[in-house]
Automatic annotation (TrEMBL):
<keyword id="KW-0325">Glycoprotein</keyword>
<dbReference type="InterPro" id="IPR017046">
    <property type="entry name" value="Prenylcysteine_Oxase1"/>
</dbReference>
<comment type="similarity">
    <text>Belongs to the prenylcysteine oxidase family.</text>
</comment>
<dbReference type="InterPro" id="IPR010795">
    <property type="entry name" value="Prenylcys_lyase"/>
</dbReference>
<keyword id="KW-0274">FAD</keyword>
<feature type="domain" description="Prenylcysteine lyase">
    <location>
        <begin position="146"/>
        <end position="467"/>
    </location>
</feature>
<keyword id="KW-0732">Signal</keyword>
<dbReference type="GO" id="GO:0030328">
    <property type="term" value="P:prenylcysteine catabolic process"/>
</dbReference>
<dbReference type="GO" id="GO:0001735">
    <property type="term" value="F:prenylcysteine oxidase activity"/>
</dbReference>
<feature type="signal peptide">
    <location>
        <begin position="1"/>
        <end position="25"/>
    </location>
</feature>
<dbReference type="InterPro" id="IPR036188">
    <property type="entry name" value="FAD/NAD-bd_sf"/>
</dbReference>
<keyword id="KW-0560">Oxidoreductase</keyword>
<dbReference type="GO" id="GO:0030327">
    <property type="term" value="P:prenylated protein catabolic process"/>
</dbReference>
<keyword id="KW-0285">Flavoprotein</keyword>
<dbReference type="Pfam" id="PF13450">
    <property type="entry name" value="NAD_binding_8"/>
</dbReference>
<dbReference type="Pfam" id="PF07156">
    <property type="entry name" value="Prenylcys_lyase"/>
</dbReference>
<protein>
    <recommendedName>
        <fullName>Prenylcysteine lyase domain-containing protein</fullName>
    </recommendedName>
</protein>
Length: 494
């Protein structure tokens, strides 16, 4: 099968994960304060705890919301719980996979037979085949996959292979981040990280430019690629090339999620790190007091921290820094996620009945289309389903009543989901003041996903340790690939 049917994936496919190094002392340990309890903040706390053995190390994590997880959360409709933020994890997201294993979290896998329709605002310009009914034989499912591949090949030609080659080349470069520390530097800037892997050039040009240079035809870019970028990043093919490659990596199969919600990953990591949690306590200001920082919270408390890690996007939080920091301006792209229990209006989509509407509707980059995608989350009956709708703006009731024939329940969530990508990208510093004030989420300007948050956090943890005088200790780290080779239990298909 040349290209599996598309899945909604906002997660990056990465390849190697290091084991925990020999524990190292953290000199002059005091409070290490982390602002943000999402996957980046939780991963930072976890890696710091497992990369050091200082009994005096005190981790404090501040979260302005009443819950941990950041952009990982769930909603409940008709007694069923659905992912509202980052929903699917790629099988090669090995940080996330290791976290789930270490925390003993149960996982669930999804099917790979989505019925995709590409809608131009008037009609479906392309559809894959309806999936075979549950319980179908292995032969029927294989035949279904083969026929879908032929349909894709007939419409998009060799551009499918060229697109896959483009993604695989990106992944091969990204895997270098997971080499053992004897061959992997500690990086002080995002530019260093990307140049070391050979990925920096992808942030200088748009995805459209990169794919045109790779030989993809215009139909593939305007239809198939556009659907993927609109689903995963809510943006067009004018996004930067690396973010676009990350988005395209989400067209593979074998996707999984944590049963009960992916938010359990950061929640478990924070518990494992024994961090002191400050929920519903945001940080209003961070002041350099010489050998430490004074953090003032929105409920009037003050904390002295020898190291401070900002693990939330600074674009939409009001934190005052004294002295001021200098970071490039960055806009966040808001994704409006609307959950609807009801039934789509077949007349709106120009088909004969609701049963003729594909299960995953992707859209082209046209001004009159009000949503990026619509997918079925659960079918209760042929006339009763729960849907997830992605859009760039709030969908008002009047518009929803046009799109849906019937609505029993509607839930809206407005996420500041990821940066607004544009080429060439400009990156904020990882070390914001040249001292001990760190910014994990600057890496999001390269690509935003659950796994990239963990990648950036692991580097920040190593950077904190190395800049506090233990860089020469040479921790003994075995790479994930070396472990798998020793166990002879898992083969990575590169």
């Amino acid at each position: 099968m040349l290209l599996p049917c598309l899945r909604i994936v906002s997660m990056l496919a990465l390849l190697l994960l290091p084991l925990l190094p020999q524990a190292l002392p953290l000199p002059h340990a005091g409070d290490v304060c982390i602002v943000g309890a999402g996957i980046s903040g939780a991963s930072t706390a976890f890696f710091l705890t497992n990369y050091t053995t200082s009994p005096a190390l005190q981790l404090r994590v501040f979260e302005r919301r009443p819950r941990v997880g950041g952009r990982l959360a769930t909603v409940t409709i008709a007694g069923d719980r659905f992912e509202a933020g980052g929903s699917i994890i790629h099988p090669r997201n090995l940080h996330a996979r290791r976290f789930a294993d270490l925390l003993g979290l149960a996982v669930k896998t999804g099917g790979d037979d989505d019925w995709l329709g590409i809608w131009d605002g008037t009609r479906f310009v392309f559809q894959t085949l309806r999936p075979p009914p549950p319980g179908s034989s292995w032969l029927r499912r294989k035949l279904h996959g083969l026929l879908n591949s032929l349909l894709l090949l007939n419409r998009y030609g060799l551009s499918l292979l060229k697109m896959d080659r483009f993604v695989q080349e990106m992944l091969q470069r990204f895997m270098l981040f997971y080499n053992g520390t004897d061959s992997r530097p500690v990086f002080g800037t995002v530019e260093e990280m990307l140049k070391w892997t050979g990925l920096y050039g992808l942030t200088r040009r748009t995805l459209e430019e990169e794919l045109t240079n790779a030989g993809l035809n215009s139909r593939t870019i305007s239809e198939l690629v556009t659907v993927i970028t609109r689903v995963n990043y809510g943006q067009s093919v004018r996004i930067s090339g690396l973010a676009g490659a990350v988005s395209l990596a989400g067209s593979e199969s074998g996707l999984w999620a944590v049963k009960g919600g992916n938010w359990q990953l950061p929640a478990g990591l924070l518990k494992a790190s024994s961090a002191t949690m400050h929920l519903q306590e945001g940080i209003d200001s961070i002041t350099d007091a010489g050998d430490y920082y004074v953090l003032k919270s929105n409920i009037g408390n003050e904390y002295n921290c020898t190291v401070t890690v900002v693990a939330t996007p600074l674009d939409e939080v009001n934190i005052t820094f004294n002295p001021p920091i200098n970071i490039p301006p960055r806009k966040m792209r808001h994704t409006h996620t609307t959950f609807v229990r009801g039934l789509l209006n077949h007349e709106y989509f120009g088909v004969r009945s609701a049963s003729d509407i594909p299960e995953l509707i992707g859209t082209m980059e046209l001004p009159d289309i009000p949503f990026s995608s619509i997918s079925i989350l659960k079918k209760y009956s042929k006339d009763d389903m729960t849907y997830k709708v992605f859009s760039r703006a709030k969908l008002e009731d009047g518009l929803l009543d046009q799109i849906f024939r019937r609505r029993e329940e509607t839930i809206r969530i407005n996420w500041a989901a990821y940066p607004h990508y544009e080429a060439p990208e400009v990156f904020a510093p990882i070390v914001l003041d040249g001292k001990q004030l760190y910014y994990v989420n600057t890496f999001e300007s390269a690509a935003s996903a659950m796994e990239t948050g963990a990648v950036a956090a692991e580097n920040v943890a190593r950077l904190i340790i190395s800049r506090r005088g233990v860089e020469s200790a040479a921790p003994r780290i075995k790479s994930f690939a070396e472990e798998e080779e020793a166990e002879s239990s898992v083969k990575l298909d590169l």
